[in-house]
Amino acid sequence: MANSEHTRRTFFGITGGAAAMVIVRPANATPAMLQAAIRNVVGEANVRSGKVKLDIPPLVENGNTVPMTVSVTSPMTADEYVKSIHVFNEKNPQPNIGNFYLGPRAGRAQVSTRIRLADSQKVTAIARLSDDTFWSVTADVVVTLAACTEEAI
After folding, report:
1. What is the pTM of this model?
2. In Å, how far are 60, 92, 106 from 128, measured between CA atoms?
3. Residue 114: CATH number of its domain
4. How many Cβ atoms are within 10 Å of 41's Cβ, its own excluded?
5. CB atoms within 10 A of CB 150
6. Is the residue at 10 inside a domain?
7. Do the domain assignments include residue 84?
8. pLDDT tens, 95-137?
9. How many domains is the chain partitioned into structurally?
10. Is 7 domain-assigned?
11. Is residue 64 domain-resident?
């Protein structure tokens, strides 16, 4: 008898032929994971409040598709522009939602997308300007039906 056949028969003998159920739950991010993700982007630089606007609903019914727009006050000229926008969340399994890279020819410093939120939490947007300063804003979002919590059976 082939080794794989023996293993399969042993498995079905032990389980009585029943299918195995696996429940997969993603781990939630921790405050340390969030801080590490932010430090991975900004290094040791000081992050200041201001210049960044995060347009996200304060209350969402479904965390699977949350609209979000991040805009940054900048003239977007060759001398003064937004290099990148980074979005972080407090409780999703992965704290870094997205990284968006811009340049002076972008026209305006704005990105729009839809995100998933695992639960009610804070969302933080950080912008890196051409002078290598970092600016941020944080918004609280209440989620009534969480995302990222599906179970595989």
Report:
1. 0.78
2. 28, 23, 14
3. 2.60.40.2470
4. 16
5. 10
6. no
7. yes
8. 999 999 999 999 999 999 999 998 999 999 999 999 999 999 9
9. 1
10. no
11. yes
Question: 3-state class of 12 per DSSP?
Answer: helix
One-letter amino acid at 63 equals G
Residues 143/119, Cβ–Cβ less than 8 Å = yes
Closest by Cα among 77, 69, 82 to 111: 69
Low-confidence stretches of the chain (pLDDT beneath 50): 17, 19-25, 152-153
Q: State the Cα–Cα distance between residues 149 and 25, nearest whole angstrom.
A: 6
- Distance CA(132)–CA(116), nearest Å, equals 29
For 25, left (φ over 0), alpha (ψ -120 to 50), or beta? Answer: beta
Helices (H), the chain: 3-15, 31-42
Tokens of 119: 């639960």
Domain that holds residue 120: 27-145
Contact 131/100 with Cβ under 8 angstroms? Answer: no
Q: Are 152 and 134 in contact (CB under 8 A)?
A: no
Q: DSSP for 33-75? A: HHHHHHHHHHTT--EEE-SEEEE--SEEEETTSEEEEEEE---
- Which stretch of DSSP H or E encloses residue 128? strand 121-129
> CA–CA separation, 73 vs 139, rounded Å?
17
Query: What is the pLDDT at residue 23?
Result: 46
